[in-house]
Amino acid sequence: MKIYADNAATTRMSETAINTMLDCMKNLYGNPSSLYTIGQDAKTRLEYAREEIAKIINAEPREIIFTSGGSEADNQAILSAANNGKKKGKTHIISTAFEHHAVLHTLKKLEKLGFEITLLPVHSNGVVDVKELEDAIRDDTCLVTVMTVNNEIGTIQPIAEIGAVCKQRGVLFHTDAVQAVGHLPIDVKAMNIDMLSASAHKFHGPKGVGFLYVRKGIILSNLIEGGAQERGKRAGTENVAGIAAMAAALKESVANMDRDKAHLTKIRDYLINGLSEIPHSALNGESERRIYSNVNFSFEGIEGESLLILLDRKGISASSGSACTSGALDPSHVLLSIGRIHDVAHGSLRLSLEENTTIEQADYIIESVKEVVEYLRSFSPVWRDLMTGKRVFILK
Q1: pLDDT on residue 328
Q2: HSE (CB half, 13 Å, CA atoms) of 121?
Q3: Of 144, 83, 74, which is closest to residue 103 (Cα–Cα)?
């Protein structure tokens, strides 16, 4: 059995997106900045996509800037807010300890330039405390940036409440909504979101294309210079085929959202119940306030990479809570932020489901994970120390 369960990393393109992209490649290959007919036809398709995307998140078309994806959008939003704030003497930014590295690394860059960064804790449930955030806002705070859905543990943040606080305090609010757009209802006006980042390949669109929502009136700093595209805020000939495919994929995902949520919530909870039967294991993050497609578990006494390799041999594609960085195996900063110790964080598994995931596949995943965990523990020195009392179990 072959099961793809790493949709938080990327999704397969939908047939709708593929067909839209192919049609544009064949028939709308003109440069949308050109004055001749085939260029203007491409421009028309580009603006139609902008209107469709804007409508879905309750924005105005001119508030949508097309980018290469979520990382570029995050960078442009944060750096723009920082530049705007610095002009007013405001150099304090608030975020969380478990943001995507596109946010955290940008904040580190700003820290070296003299900005003060406050990273809020997310505690064991993986959810930001709005009161703690409100208390952290100062007179010199220029930006709050909090992701809508965490990419590893799937916890959903109180975005509307955060947006309301930021509006009341006169602070710009940006959210990395890469894991949320196409999967949760987003209304930038009702949620008081000033800037929002999204990426097409997270909702069955193509890789290498995304968008940044920027509320009208916010001055956007350029990351790329060279042309007047995107109202002069993002130089370079627009990827019309990719953008059109993104809009088509998003429209389809939103149309199927309620159906997919009902189906995948059952599969998610079934997986959580089944994996909870494994001794000394634990679900990472809030069980209720999490995206319906995410299951993230830690298993004591094993290493996540070995778990992934053996699951892959069984036909299951998943991801771990660890990442190989510069030759060193580092535990997930997300899992550390919710209080998992290094040894436990190393033995983690993320399953991110798609709308076609079945109960039969969930049964196979549960059976396979149980077998692999038992096998890995059978020769693990850490597990032997735990069983003999040389180490104390963390997960009960």
Answers
A1: 45
A2: 7
A3: 74
User: What sign does the dihedral 203-205-210-211 (CA atoms) show?
Assistant: negative
Token pair, residue 263, equals 């189906």
Tell me the catalytic residues: 324
Q: Read off the tokens for 375.
A: 């096998």
| pLDDT, tens only, 94-151 | 999 999 999 999 999 999 999 999 999 999 999 999 999 999 999 999 999 999 999 9
pTM of the model: 0.95
Q: What are phi and psi of 144, to 5 degrees?
A: -115, 125
List domains and CATH numbers for the chain: 15-254 (3.40.640.10), 256-388 (3.90.1150.10)
Q: How far is CA 82 from the centre of its chain?
A: 22
End-to-end alpha-carbon separation of the chain, Å? 32
- Name residue, tokens 């398709």: 45
**pLDDT < 70 regions, the chain:** 321-329
Alpha-carbon distance of 275 to 298, in angstroms, equals 10
The CA–CA distances, whole Å, from 308 to 34, 279, 347, 365 equal 49, 19, 10, 12
- In three-state form (DSSP H/G/I as H, E/B as E, the rest C), the secondary structure along 33-62 is CCCCHHHHHHHHHHHHHHHHHHHHCCCCHH
- pLDDT at res. 326: 35
**Residue entry with tokens 């429209």:** 251
What does the pLDDT read at residue 329?
Answer: 63
Show the beta-strand stretches assigned E in the chain. 3-4, 64-67, 92-96, 116-120, 141-145, 172-176, 195-199, 210-214, 281-283, 294-299, 316-317, 319-320, 322-325, 328-331, 348-352
